[in-house]
Amino acid sequence: MTLSLSLSLSLSLCVCVCVCVCVWQVLLVFAKDDAQSNSFCWACERAGFRCNVARTPEAALESFQEKNHDLIIMDHRHSRYFDAEALCRYVYSTCVCVSVVTQRYVENSNMMSCYNELIQLHHGEIRAQIKLRACNAVFTALEQSQEAIEISSEDQIIQYVNPAYECIMGYQRGELLKENTEVPKSEQNKPDLLDNISSCLRRGKEWQGVYYAKKKNGDSVQQNVKMTPVVGQGGWSGACEGCFHMILCLAGSSQRRHSSMARIHSMTIEAPITKVINIINAAQESSPMPVAEALDRVLEILRTTELYSPQLGTKEEDPHTNDLVGGLMTDGLRRLSGNEYILATKQLHHIPGHLTTPLSLNDIPPCIAQTMENEDSWDFDIFNLESATMKRPLTYLGLKIFSRFGVCEFLSCPEATLRSWLQIIEANYHSSNSYHNSTHAADVLHATAYFLCKERVKQSLDPIDEVAALIAATVHDVDHPGRTNSFLCNAGSELAILYNDTAVLESHHAALAFQITTRDDKCNIFKNMERNEYRTLRQAVIDMVLATEMTKHFEHVNKFVNSINKPLAALEENGSFVCVCAGKCILTAPENRILVKRMLIKCADISNPCRPLELCIEWAGRISEEYFAQTDEEKQQGLPVVMPVFDRNTCSIPKSQISFIDYFITDMFDAWDAFADLPNLMQHLDNNFKYWKSLDEKKLHSLRPPPE
């Protein structure tokens, strides 16, 4: 970088200033020593500058090329010794990245005058030139930065944007740098926010916070932003070249990266569990030793991730319960062999040819219609419908229930589209599965519809929640392979790999349901929905399907009890009008509505023990057969046997049902009954438990006692 300084003075001492490095080095070119050269030598020494002296132009050039001095002072008083101007021109020609300027200095051999001259050069325009010299490095850094950076004038005219900004905001290179391009403004920024930013910057203060930037395609993107005011020429007045520039630093599409770990350590991150741990730690300091030791145990428990899962005893105490937990609440064991269970990649099922004409409620055969006359009753026999429909109960029951709840009207969906959708969903259930087939889906849909008619559930949920619940129940096990998540993870199945061994089947059911629905307009029941409403409905369906995964069973149940059951019970004990209003607030709070929907579909999904005895027995036989088949295949494939008690030669079905009811069902349905008032279900549950208990006491392993 080159710096040129000039003073119009009568005497001819030539000062050539070359700015190139931060540590100042001075070269004195004097043909002979005199008072002036000695004064400059003294001034350099006092200022802490490095000083070299050259007597001839050749020596000066050699010294300059070796050390690249910052300041060259040449004696131009005696031209007979050498041509100072020619030497300056040569310095110009040899300095590629250095700025050279000449400045005339009046002869003055006073040492303090020479010292002051050097200090003025160093602290005056030289320092400004040093900053300018850094500009290339600064802009190179900006160009390479992954943070999006924009520099604009006070009137919002863009002066500079870096490539990261252009990329994030969707612009081509240089597209925003055209003359008088204004900063794109998003309508999502409230006027008072913009006024606050402007006021802050005018006072010379930085502003940092959440800001909506507008992309080229018109979308608004939320960013963590830091804006810095920079004084330019003219200070803060409205003078010529713009009184200040504003540097806008965006964090990119992800969370803003902090440049210093110190900022992370200074953050206060206090989740509720953190507050509890801090309170216990504080209490320990003033507690007796036994109490402090007990609190240590409490802290150990609180720091685990399984806060809602009961701890079981040893396997010898209850192998049935342990095996059920292992099979339903884990994502598999480590594989013990190199065998892999690969679900064959297959096309989605299509509707069989003899079903391609959609059915209408008016076209349902009388025998099927008669079977569904009491579908609004809890004691409805789904197996009669399965027989009457030749194992296609989901389509017929779905038509009736969806019509009763006005689903087509809510979705603005033709009945023909709904019929096609029900048929294609049912076609993607595996009729070869003894349990997880379309009859199970129809049973869960029936239970869901029954629960939705309960008064407290109706008070809590909106129409979109009801529609989401019915859709989720219909699709919640679509394309189920008849094997548990643990089996798929142990076998290294394609689905387990796809979903990282986490909620494998539930993720697949939800994803496939939307894939089937949206791939063809003929069965796309969401086609006419407004975008935001569709996204809300889609999220609700996905959340409910994922809630059927058993690994978080106790978390869902405990959250429901603590967030809804207990607060409502406390209000009911009071009984005042204010408490009635508070109860409505509890029921309709968005976070509680989510808990209600999760609990609803969970109870519908595993409600078999609460059905009338004959239905309960049939379901118990079907799920046992599916588990037997899984154990058989695990042994054949050399895989870990997830549920050893489900060996068809040794299994006690009554014991497995007792364990399932004790461990999963009783507490959950107690909580759901307290909320939705379901005395008939609880009576069935009690009767069924006694039935299984009586078989177990007789040491029977079968579904039914032997005939007398």
**Proportion of residues in β-strands:** 5-15%
Uncertain segments are 1-12, 17-21, 233-269, 333-347, 351-358
Q: If helices are DSSP runs of H or I spanning 4 or more residues, what is the number of helices?
A: 30
Estimate percent helicity.
40-55%
Class from secondary-structure proportions: alpha+beta
Give the end-to-end Cα distance, rounded to a whole number of Å: 108 Å
Write structural notes for this entry.
The protein has 708 residues and is an alpha+beta fold. Helices cover 52% and strands 9% of the residues. The protein is built from 30 helices and ten strands. The chain has helices spanning 35-47, 57-67, 84-94, 111-123, 125-133, 135-144, 163-169, 191-202, 261-265, 272-285, 289-302, 319-328, 366-371, 382-388, 393-404, 407-411, 415-427, 438-452, 455-460, 463-475, 485-490, 494-498, 504-518, 531-547, 553-574, 577-588, 590-605, 613-637, 653-676, 679-697; strands spanning 13-19, 25-29, 50-54, 71-75, 99-105, 148-153, 158-161, 207-214, 220-231, 244-250. Helix 20 packs parallel to helix 27 (590-605) and helix 24 packs across helix 27. The radius of gyration is 40 Å and the shape is elongated. The relative contact order is 0.06. Residues 360-699 form the PDEase domain.
